[in-house]
Amino acid sequence: MPTFEVEVQNATGKSSRKKVKAPSAEHVRRVLSNKYPTIKSIKKSGLDFNLDFSKIGERFTKVKIKDKAVFSRQFAAMVNAGVGIVRCLDVLSEECSNPKLKKALLAINADVQQGTNLSYAMSKHPECFDELYISMVEAGEEGGVLDEVLNRVATLLEDMARLQGQIKSAMAYPTTVGLFAVVIFFAMTIFLIPIFASIFKDLGVELPVLTQVMLLISATLRSWKIIFPIGFVFAAVLGLRRYYKTKTGRLQIDRFLLKMPLLGQLNEKNAVARFCRIFGTLTRSGVPILNCLDIVRNTTGNKVIANAVEASKQEIQQGGMVSLALQREKVFPVLAIQMISIGEETGELDGMMVKVADFYEDEVKQAVQALTSLIEPIMMVGVAAMVGVILLSMYLPMFKIFDQLG
User: Fold this and answer.
1) Residue 238 pLDDT grade (very low, low, confident, very high; cuts 50, 70, 90)
2) How many CB atoms neighbour CB 286 within 10 A?
3) Cβ contact 344:323 at 8 Å
4) Is the whole model's pTM more than 0.70, yes or no?
5) Four-residue CA torsion sign, 322, 327, 333, 338
6) For residue 356, is it left (φ>0), alpha (ψ between -120 and 50) or beta?
7) C or N terminus of the chain, fewer CB within 10 Å?
8) How far apart are CA 211 and CA 96, in angstroms?
9) What is the pLDDT of residues 19-30, one digit of tens each?
10) What is d(CA 303, CA 246) in angstroms, rounded to the nearest whole number?
């Protein structure tokens, strides 16, 4: 923890210098402002290697959905118990294990002490609190139901984290098998094939085409020529990323992600669940529907769906319905459109949105399980085939030698 040299002045006007260990200058100011009416300056004392290491850790640390969910749940419980916001932030910042979130909470606490709204103070830290979070907190402040809104935020983040966890856990086995296959391929190609290559060279036997191809791959992997395929892959990935940053490229790639075989329906269901979950939570928290659409549009992560949400916003401004606009864009499944339409007709749009989100989150879970059950045997067969091809390419020349000797 860094050390700060602080020049303070007491009530009689006498100045003095103190050394204080604290995570940040804002924390020092907040602690000493209760004892001294005037704080003239705060400077870091000397070189502090711990500070450098903490900055490095903070730079490479991300604020995960789970971190924000835990913070929101604890914050809501303390606010509901009647604890002041400043005291809540003080306690939660000390208990926070994420260095980036901890620094943001200390800065937010300092801003709130100076009379800044909580939502505005959070908006200064977009790496920790996105537009969705800030809008819900702002609605809770305006409605005087901050604890209730924070609980809804926590529930929303927990649902999103649970869905991500289910997808990651389901894809863990196929990913492991894939990495294992890559390691086996490189190990056999780099270390095993050269042994056979020297034997074939000594025997002077004519090699089959398959063996020649595998020897060429092995020689390429062990020479400087490997730079060319690596450079090609790197250039292709870089070009694809640059193309995705363009308006046309992002639209085409996002449309392909929704229509691609096997994974297309999974991406579509996941997008529907995310849209409905966020929209329903925002409307229940008192956020105006047009603002809800703006937030959902910016958090969908898919340009095709974002365009559909923008079209629905224009439809509503002209007196139309969300379901009709989404149906016209042909983005969401028919079942989701019908359920949203029923919610609009009955005046229970927020409740229906949450039900649609629950339904499609369950669909995503089942789709991931079905996909992994299909991928697992395919990958196992692929690994076996890869090993078999390598071994066959090495033993074919030997079979030819045995035939000649016979």
Assistant:
1) very high
2) 15
3) yes
4) no
5) positive
6) alpha
7) C
8) 59
9) 777 767 777 777
10) 11
Q: Cα separation of 56 and 60, whole Å?
A: 6
What pairs with residue 43 in β-bridges? 5
Round to whole Å and give the CA distance between 143 and 405: 92
118/86 Cα distance (integer angstroms): 10
Nearest by Cα to 238 from 254, 264, 230: 230
pLDDT more than 70, % of the chain? 93
Amino acid at 135: S
Residue 51, pLDDT > 70, answer: no
Q: What would the two tokens of residue 293 be?
A: 């659409």
The candidate with the shortest Cα–Cα distance to 337, out of 312, 367, 310, is 312
CA–CA separation, 20 and 164 (whole Å)? 42
CA 1 centroid distance within chain = 29
What is the torsional sign of CA 276, 282, 285, 290? negative
- Pair 112, 89: CB distance under 8 Å: yes
Nearest to 126 by CA among 343, 300, 299, 337: 299
Closest-CA residue to 274 (of 165, 354, 368, 369): 354
Supply the DSSP string of 260-305, one letter for each residue: STTHHHHHHHHHHHHHHHHHHHHHHTT--HHHHHHHHHHHS--HHH
Which pLDDT does position 57 carry in this prediction? 56
Per-residue pLDDT of 187-212, as tens digits, reads 888 888 888 877 777 776 677 888 88
| DSSP 8-state class, residue 226 | G
Neighbours of 401 (CB within 10 A): 14
Mean pLDDT over residues 130-150, rounded?
81
